[in-house]
Write a structure and sequence with these properties.
The protein is mostly beta strands. The protein is built from 2 helices and 14 strands, in the order ββββαββββββββββα. It has one domain: Jelly Rolls. The relative contact order is 0.23. GO terms for molecular function: dTDP-4-dehydrorhamnose 3,5-epimerase activity.
Length: 190
């Protein structure tokens, strides 16, 4: 089992994604020492006061995926996701599908891992997916702004050529995708 070795971060930090300003990379406080580390992965009051993050988070999810697994691209109306990695490493992707948005159809990817302890805020109106880059797999957690409803969830094929996400693992033999995800509609169908 891989033990994360995060760097020390005394202050909460927020990084706005320049290409798609509604996306945020949030860097929580982390306190490593000789025993291991402690990380304040979410603090509703401090996040609101210090970085203006005000969301009504209603559901927590935790998934484990093996190396090469590609999950997504999925979305559900009115559901934003705050994504973090407990252990391992992923390439996490958000695709803007808000019809009136100036960044409609654009995607952005970030590396999340157990060491950097970053959180990626993906607001409602975005597709979400990730690819696992670490050989030991990855434990991924999501805080969601809505409760999951299978009747309203939908997705786009993660290899859709109109979106053209540049997934880091190029060897198709190393990529594991569910049949359901590869059968999703095309971006043009939106």
């Amino acid at each position: 089992m891989s033990v994360p070795t995060p760097g020390k971060r005394f202050q909460l930090e927020k990084e706005v994604v320049a290409a798609i300003p509604d996306l945020l990379v949030i860097k929580p406080k982390v306190f490593p020492d000789e025993r291991g580390f402690f990380s304040e992965s979410y603090n509703k009051t401090e996040w609101a006061e210090k970085i203006g993050y005000i969301e009504d988070l209603q559901q927590d999810n935790h998934s484990f995926s093996h190396y090469g697994v590609l999950r997504g691209l999925h979305t559900q109306p009115h559901m934003g996701k705050l994504v973090t990695v407990v252990s391992g490493e992923i390439f996490d992707v958000a695709v803007d599908i808000r019809k009136d948005s100036p960044t409609y159809g654009k995607w952005h990817g970030v590396i999340l891992n157990g060491d950097n302890k970053h959180a990626f805020w993906i607001p409602a109106g975005f597709l979400h997916g990730f690819q696992v880059l670490s050989k030991e797999g990855a434990h991924v957690t999501y805080k969601c702004s809505a409760v999951y409803d299978p009747k309203t969830e939908f997705g786009i094929n993660p290899f859709d050529e109109d979106i053209n996400v540049d997934w880091p693992i190029k060897d198709k033999a190393s990529v594991i995708v569910s049949e359901r995800d590869t059968q999703h509609a095309s971006f043009k169908s939106l």
